[in-house]
UniProtKB/TrEMBL annotation:
CDD domains assigned to the protein according to its UniProt record, in alphabetical order: Tetrahydromethanopterin_reductase (cd01097)
Entries under InterPro entries matching the protein: F420-G6PD/mer (IPR050564), Luciferase-like_dom (IPR011251), Luciferase-like_sf (IPR036661)
Keywords noted in UniProt: Oxidoreductase
Broad class of enzyme this protein falls into: oxidoreductase
Protein name: F420-dependent glucose-6-phosphate dehydrogenase
Length: 296
């Protein structure tokens, strides 16, 4: 396959205790020429800052990177409020917010915060309803009405409109979620190892088939993979643990062979996350871009 220049970025953990470090990590990503910053969203995690509050702060401190929840916890964020928040962030940042969105998980923790406890089927239904409300709220319609099993709005006046068409990038793994991504999503946002390389071609086909069946262009759906690992100075020991040349080869394969348009680096070595991000931006990202441009 041929591929355009991939978008590269970082996947950041919103640890409250290391908030200044989180800010430095994102600033290093922008300074290093990366394009994307994803932030985990687990509102029930007591060690984490609120993701959307943090995103507002990070957008105010940066000028170029696009920032998104990776992925937003829908059961704890009602769609009308989520739509308002997303549009507001997009307006304030000049069009640099995207919406990573998930159906939910960790149901005991969600229920403990007063959220719903849904079956897998119900969570997919609720996500489809939420996407309809989000789309309507950003469409410029003066009044939005929607009556679903999980969500309903009746004569709601949305606004402000976002500064650009906000992408809805869906964190999906199971067949129903992958089909929903193909039918309704602007992007697919999985993470290793939940989407292992050997399963990705099958998962991509499910998205493509669902998109084609819905009359959509499968190529218009962005594919962005969160990749966790450690850049080391020694020999490669795992798929994503090794020196920069090993990372360049592996990530180039994710683009050219597995069809991803973007990659977000998640430092998982448990040490110097800032140093890892600086190395990724300086020693890995340029090599990936060059290798993709050459075709491998």
């Amino acid at each position: 396959m041929t591929a355009g220049t991939p978008e590269l970025g970082v996947f950041v953990t919103p640890e409250a205790a290391t908030y200044p470090d989180v800010v430095r990590q994102v600033q290093a990503a922008e300074r290093g020429g990366l394009e994307l910053v994803g932030i985990q969203d687990h509102p029930y995690q007591r060690r984490f800052l609120d993701t959307f509050t943090l995103i507002a702060d990070l957008l105010a401190r940066t000028e170029r990177v696009r920032v998104f929840p990776d992925v937003a916890n829908l059961p704890l964020r009602p769609p009308p409020v989520l739509a308002k928040t997303a549009a507001s962030l997009d307006v304030m940042s000049g069009g640099r917010f995207e919406l990573g969105l998930g159906a939910g998980g960790f149901w005991d923790a969600i229920a403990a915060m007063g959220g719903p406890r849904r079956t897998p089927g119900e969570s997919v239904e609720a996500l489809e309803e939420a996407i309809a409300i989000l789309r309507a709220s950003w469409s410029g319609e003066r009044s939005v009405r929607f009556a679903g099993r999980h969500y309903a709005v009746d004569g709601w006046h949305p606004g402000p409109p976002p500064a650009h068409p906000i992408g809805i990038w869906i964190g999906a793994y199971g067949p129903r979620m992958l089909r929903l991504t193909g039918r309704l999503g602007d992007g697919w946002l999985p993470s290793l190892p939940y989407a292992p390389p050997e399963r990705i071609p099958e998962m991509q086909r499910r998205i493509d088939d669902a998109a084609a069946s819905a009359g959509r262009d499968p190529g218009a759906i962005r594919r962005i993979l969160n990749v966790g690992g450690e850049i080391t100075g020694g020999p490669a020991t795992e798929l994503l643990q090794g020196p920069p040349d090993h990372w360049i080869e592996a990530l180039t394969g994710f683009v050219l062979e597995l069809g991803f348009d973007g990659l977000a680096f998640w430092p998982t070595g448990g040490g110097d996350d800032l140093g890892q991000i600086e190395r990724f931006a300086a020693e890995v990202a340029p090599g990936v871009r060059e290798a993709v441009a050459r075709g491998g």
